[in-house]
Amino acid sequence: MRIIVLNGSPKGEYSVTLQYVNLVKKIFEEHDFQIIHISKRIKKIEKDLHLFNQIIEDVKTSDLVLWSFGLWVLAVPAQYMRFIELIMERKAESAFNNKYTAVISTSIHFYDHTAHNYMRAVCEDLDMQFVEGISFDMLDLMQEKERGDLITFFENIIRTVEKKTVMSKMYPPLQFNHFVYEPSHDSDNIKTNKKVLVIADYYEENSNLGRMIHRFSSSFENAAEVIPLNAINIKGACLGCMRCGYDYQCHYNDEFTDFYNNRVRKADVIVIAGTMNGRYLSSKWKTFFDRAFFWNHTPSLVGKQIAYLISGPVSQNYNLVQILEATVTARQMANMVDIVSDECSDSNEIDATLQGLAEQVVYYSERNYIRPFNFLGVGGHKIFRDDVWGRIRGIWQADHRYYKRHGLYDFPQKKIGLRIMNFFLLLACKVPYIRKKYYDNVKKFPAVRYGKLIEKLIRKGGYKYSGI
User: Fold this and answer.
1) Could you give the CA distance from residue 280 to residue 323 in angstroms, rounded to a whole number?
2) Do both 217 and 331 map to the same domain?
């Protein structure tokens, strides 16, 4: 069997995920493996059409395409995403049609599911036979059980290809429309001293996105600042060198770090504007998010109001919605205000929604409001907290200093009062009479307790509605 491995790690042969592939290659030596370093060579692949076409020919002659990558900020690396864009731009989709495919990744399991959802959707958009995806921890190769899982995973792929099993589909094709947004010129000019920054991947005034940006920014008495990413000198996407782990200093010497620190981080409201390109926004936006990782696992936009303006069928792509929300909450501890798109195909409705968004971001910003986090934020924080304190502290030392200084090492075992209470509660419940009384009252106790608190707060008069 001829197997093409599309290596998505910018580290090339030093990719952690590729070592899992190398083990499989050694064990299943009767099969022909060809490893192509996509992300490491993306600039050459982009410029050299002959090289790109050779990769496409290799895919055509393969029996199995294995997508291999390490997780990069909630999805695949920007370089990998650019390759996927090139497939679409150069009309090379037919080379992938009906090919069997699988996905393997490594990470610390921080939003690995969104990366896998993205890749499965891409494979199905290419009309491939998606067999399975598997997500390993970076250190799983050291464990016998996980090595066994890897072998079982690959055996199943081989069996599936040989039997020509027809695989199920999960993601319907996205339906893009050709609606042209025509904004009105009437808007309420909102007065605020808050700095509102709109960042766009590409800014074309006559596109739907360009008109949405103009309509939104003109909602303020002093128009929001609009910056297109292509106006910033960004030499390349994140290389995964981890040099920033010690003191937030990026390997690249270009304009991005200064732009991010002195313009993005100094804004009160940040609006991210982009056009959907397949299952994500664009690889340009992915480059922005990946390069912003020079702040490591440290939240660099704490307390900001963040919203999205998107041209495209966002509601058909809930995986993207989850990525966008997690980008704000789990990654940045900021406030996710809203996502406004043009998919409703009604210019008046878009006008009203954009005006409402402008009012919301100012209202929240002036009150320093951060919505309490749901699972996406709480769960993400705990993964970062545990791993930064534990096994990755030696690399990400800047994170460790920040977490320690800002109380983000909020482990439950540090709460002495809670530990004492639980000790006595567990001891007391060994007595049948006490256990019965405790569980008889446990349902109503929180409501009674909060009821008393509410009455106390109202008597003190500390909370009153101030009006609009």
Assistant:
1) 9
2) yes
Q: Which domain holds residue 256?
A: 196-366
**Sequential pLDDT tens for the chain (468 residues):** 999 999 999 999 999 999 999 999 999 999 999 999 999 999 999 999 999 999 999 999 999 999 999 999 999 999 999 999 999 999 999 999 999 999 999 999 999 999 999 999 999 999 999 999 999 999 999 999 999 999 999 999 999 999 999 999 999 999 999 999 999 877 778 999 999 999 999 888 899 999 999 999 999 998 899 999 999 999 999 999 999 999 999 999 999 999 999 999 999 999 999 999 999 999 999 999 999 999 999 999 999 999 999 999 999 999 999 999 999 999 999 999 999 999 999 999 999 999 999 999 999 999 999 999 999 999 999 999 999 999 999 999 999 999 999 999 999 998 999 999 999 999 999 999 999 999 999 989 899 999 999 999 888 886 777 665
Report the C-alpha gap between 64 and 43 in whole angstroms.
25
Q: Are residues 150 and 223 in the same domain?
A: no
Residue 293 and residue 235 share a domain: yes
For residue 379, being part of any structural domain is answered with no
CA dihedral sign, ordered 242, 335, 264, 365 = negative
CB burial readout 64-75, b (16+ within 10 A) else e: bbbbbbbbbbbb
Q: Say yes or no: 153 and 78 in one domain.
A: yes
With residues binned 3-state (H G I as helix, E B as strand, rest as coil), the percentages for the chain, rounded to 5, are 50, 15, 35
How much is the pTM? 0.94
Final residue of a structural domain among 311, 346, 366: 366
Same domain, 219 and 330: yes
Task: Work out how many domains the chain is built from and give that number.
Answer: 3
